Amino acid sequence: MPGRCIEFFFDVGSPYSYLAATQMERVGARAGLPVRWRPFLLGGVFRATGNEMPARVPAKARYMIDDLTRWARHYGVPLRIPSRFPVVTLRPQRALVHVETTAPHALATAAMELFRAYWAEDLDPTSDAVLARAADVAGLPRDELLAAIEAQPVKDALRATTEEAVARGAFGAPTMFVGDAMFWGNDRLELLVESVRAS
Amino acid sequence: MPGRCIEFFFDVGSPYSYLAATQMERVGARAGLPVRWRPFLLGGVFRATGNEMPARVPAKARYMIDDLTRWARHYGVPLRIPSRFPVVTLRPQRALVHVETTAPHALATAAMELFRAYWAEDLDPTSDAVLARAADVAGLPRDELLAAIEAQPVKDALRATTEEAVARGAFGAPTMFVGDAMFWGNDRLELLVESVRAS
Asked: Which residues of A touch B74 (CB under 8 A)?
């Protein structure tokens, strides 16, 4: 089917978004589809849908650490549980919207830089220092990126993407779409590939 | 490691328990470990942990139907979304505790009979008619099984198993243990096998 792609809605504050992000290139190749990275705000999704972060339930929060560690081992990717979790991801997500707008070819690279800083290096993804790294890998002026975080069109674009995801059925992160078909979680990437291949 | 097994905590009212149940024989074979089926009460787990059923969030409930359908296709097992969901599973879970006590070799067979009735045939797993089928496949007198549902030792045993699962970290269903290692969801069966093989 021409024009199809995998839309990958993610938030750098979400560990399962990080795990999925490390696999998207491989998933796109296996599905034979391009991947469109779409930064959104998971906190906004939770507010709109009445869903809550899994770590709200203490027993689930304890389990999540083992679970994330197993996935990281399974994928062969680095993972360090951050000392600060959760964080408000408005700044990094807006920064990525700015990259999406001004250097779309560098969006995945910039997003991976923020993901790795938070989930592999235990750095603060909301800090100017880490955001500057995203600007660097995207080839954008640091000042411009930091200023964009406070720009109304960037704020509006992040809100619009979040509302779009919710309107299409999203309630968590990561959320992938192939057309109308929605898949939630890095643990559904294999079913996504299977579904694309069967259609 | 001698004496190890996969403990499979399940509730016939849980669709992801059904999906896992259809795979446990294969999972046990791949992990090289026997599977011990352990009926517990998911409602009791939710009450004890503050967790809630995923269908509480409307967007998640809508997604779950697609998700369950995809898993059923992936496994090649029948699935019909029941017209009555959720149901209070005290009666079937107690019936399975009775099977566990009096005919342990038949527990998996009896559990699969109840799972299939609810998740593939849209029958009421709390009804005498369906419970009688579980008695039949377990080779137990129907009257005895129906009477056992109201017996105090059976009630106590179901409560004890539920409390044990919670004490060990469970917050949902299905929950699998290999020793202290806990795995939640049919979507973690591959990680369970991987973890056993690596240890």
From this structure: 191, 194
